[in-house]
Prior knowledge:
This protein is α/β, with parallel strands linked by helices. The protein has helices at 2-20, 26-32, 58-69, 84-89, 148-154, 169-175, 186-196, 220-235, 238-247, and strands at 34-39, 42-43, 47-49, 55-56, 73-78, 95-101, 110-119, 121-125, 140-144, 160-164, 181-185, 201-202, 209-216. The protein folds into two domains: 7-118 and 210-247, Periplasmic binding protein-like II (D-Maltodextrin-Binding Protein, domain 2, 3-Layer(aba) Sandwich); 121-202, Periplasmic binding protein-like II (D-Maltodextrin-Binding Protein, domain 2), CATH 3.40.190. It has nine helices and 13 strands. 40% of the residues are buried. The structure holds arginine. Arginine binds next to β2, β6 and β13.
Amino acid sequence: MKKLIWFGVLVLALASLASAQQFRTFPQIKKSGKILIGTEGAFPPFNFFDDQNHLKGFDIDIGNAIAKQLNLQPEWKAHAWDTMLIALNQGRFDFVIASHTITAERAKAVDFSKPYYCTGNVIVTKPGGPLTPEALKGKVIGAQLGTTFEEFAKQFGPKQLKTYQTNPDAVQDLMMGRIDAWITDQFTAIEAIKTRNLNLKVSGLLNKEEIGMAVAKGNSLLLAAINKALDDIQANGVYAKISDKWFGQDIRCK
Ligand code: ARG
């Protein structure tokens, strides 16, 4: 009986050890020939679904270029923004490219690559609305849930901070006057206004954010391979071409 109990304890211990590392190492990925990439699909022009329901955007092109550089077949998986890093640590994809800002808080849970672009937050509002941090005090601000935009908006002392499941959800409320301002990324702001031809104003850049790809915590061989591939595509002109296609400029961190 005692033996049986000890055997049970051993099995449990082994099982928890196995579940602690729920990722494929780079050699395992290499052997399979394909790499699973997670993204959101609702953050144009970085990651979004086009009319034909195909994933498109800067993040998608960079992810594909990274896979190609590693000689691997990319397999994309779309996942909700707010649980994406949890899914990553559960081994649902090998890496994530979804415009995550590299933050100390997130770096406790996952490992980030070198930044693959730099950007910043802006305020978007109707003509005559609040366009400076000072003017935001006491106003109703909208931001995507679980983003750095939401965190950033808190400091302005809003009357209310309304959060949205996806980033473009806030635009509708802004147009309807249900929020006074929308905090978002500079490039997503320009894209939203351009594609829907909206009469909205955009502030200057309010901060600087470094954006990284993420791997499961401790997946160091894969991280090194991704960082090397990023260096390679930034050196051989592939990155510059993709960036020019989406933004008409090179958005790598200077
Ligand atoms: N860079 C911001 C953040 O990391 C927003 C990213 C939103 N990305 C997305 N796919 N919705 O919080």
